[in-house]
Specification:
Radius of gyration: 20 Å
Bound molecules: S-adenosylmethionine
Strand content: 15-25%
Number of helices: 9
Strand order of the largest sheet: 1-8-5-4-9-10-13-12-11
Structural class: alpha/beta
Distance between the termini: 22 Å
Order of helices and strands: EEEEHEEEHEHEHEHEHHHEEH
Length: about 325
């Protein structure tokens, strides 16, 4: 099991700077680190951390998920945007986990996200528990208890074992608990037609279609030629993705090699179903989907990946035992 330190709080003291400006650098006080933010997090003094990614609570329907007095787990919390949001909406307890201290964004820029989390945690007076580094594969009811709500946003496409992760999540949720599973979805025609063509058994909110997103992007770029120059290679890759059969084709997806796959909606919904959840609502935003999934059953041990994994682990232990 991954070792972890709880609520590490060292770098939080060292950072004191100003937000804003054209870059996402956040200069810290003397001797402190420079934090490169991904998210825009609103601080008590009204300033906002200069992240490259704007908050998308409404786009993913997070404002519709009741967290009041509930236990919330934020998987892949990064710099803590969604953790702090859950707290602000009255969550009883929030636990945040992540595995990496540093991230690489679309422009291969470095983001020291753990320092960001701890800095914001301090400024916001957060009571969230930061369990770091800690992998989703290691969560279990023994260590964590059970959660009413789990956020898993922007994580599943990074996971080598997505089904195992979903099973682990199922294990730490109360029956009827809500998982918000958010992901890029494959920008193939099949993926998008699926959203419209098949009679879904759950309500679909089309927050923004891919076409609408493209129109908005073009408008924005026309107003900002400097941004066009900076983003041109990235935009070219995205356009290439859109016309190629797979968003992952030739590894061009965001130029990020830690993205292992981009599921189409049918596949993602099947994984959700297989892991003991039913989809209660889905939000489509450009090339991303956020599914609100209710835990309906425990994982069927006959099919569970973790059951097989457990067997393999036992076998290895036995072999080792024989050898010694
Ligand atoms: C694209 S970021 C998403 C961050 C944030 N949840 C969001 O939606 O903006 C993916 C995050 O998942 C984390 N991650 C990747 N694999 C993980 C694992 N096995 N367990 C926990 N977190 C993981 C990464 O370190 C990273 O912080």
């Amino acid at each position: 099991m991954t070792s972890h330190r709880e609520s590490r709080d060292s770098s939080g003291d060292r950072c004191a700077g100003t937000t804003g400006g054209p870059s996402n650098k956040f200069q810290c006080g003397a001797g402190g680190d420079t934090i490169y933010w991904i998210h825009q997090i609103r601080l008590p003094d009204g300033t906002v951390t200069p992240g490259v990614s704007r908050p998308a609570m409404h786009d993913f329907g997070l404002d519709e998920v009741d967290v009041h007095n509930k236990r919330v787990l934020d998987i892949g919390c990064l710099d803590g945007l969604y953790t702090f949001y859950a707290e602000q909406r009255g969550a009883g307890e929030v636990v945040s986990i992540d595995i990496l201290e540093e991230q690489f964004g679309p422009q291969r820029q470095r983001y020291n996200t753990a320092a960001g989390y701890l800095w914001a945690h301090k400024r916001l007076g957060s009571r969230a528990k930061y369990v770091f580094p800690y992998s989703v594969y290691d969560v279990s009811p023994d260590g964590f208890g059970q959660f009413d709500v789990v956020y898993c946003l922007g994580v599943i496409y990074h996971l080598a074992h997505p089904l195992l992760a979903l099973e682990r999540i199922n294990d730490v949720m109360v029956p009827g608990g809500i998982l918000v599973l958010e992901s890029e979805v494959s920008a193939t025609r099949a993926g998008f037609f699926h959203q419209r063509r098949h009679a879904a058994t759950f309500p679909m909110v089309n927050v923004m279609s891919a076409r609408e997103a493209a129109r908005k992007l073009v408008k924005l770029l026309l107003r900002n030629p400097a941004m066009v120059r900076r983003l041109l290679p990235h935009i070219a890759r995205r356009l290439a993705n859109a016309i190629r059969p797979s968003a992952l084709d030739k590894g061009v997806y965001y130029g990020d090699r830690t993205t292992l796959w981009v599921f189409d909606c049918t596949t993602l919904e099947r994984l959700i179903d297989f892991s003991g959840f039913e989809i209660v609502k889905a939000f489509s935003h450009s090339t991303r989907m956020a599914y609100h999934c209710r835990k309906v059953t425990n994982i069927d041990a006959t099919f569970a990946a973790s059951w097989k994994y457990q067997k393999v682990k036992n076998r290895i232990t036995n072999v080792e035992g024989q050898e010694s």
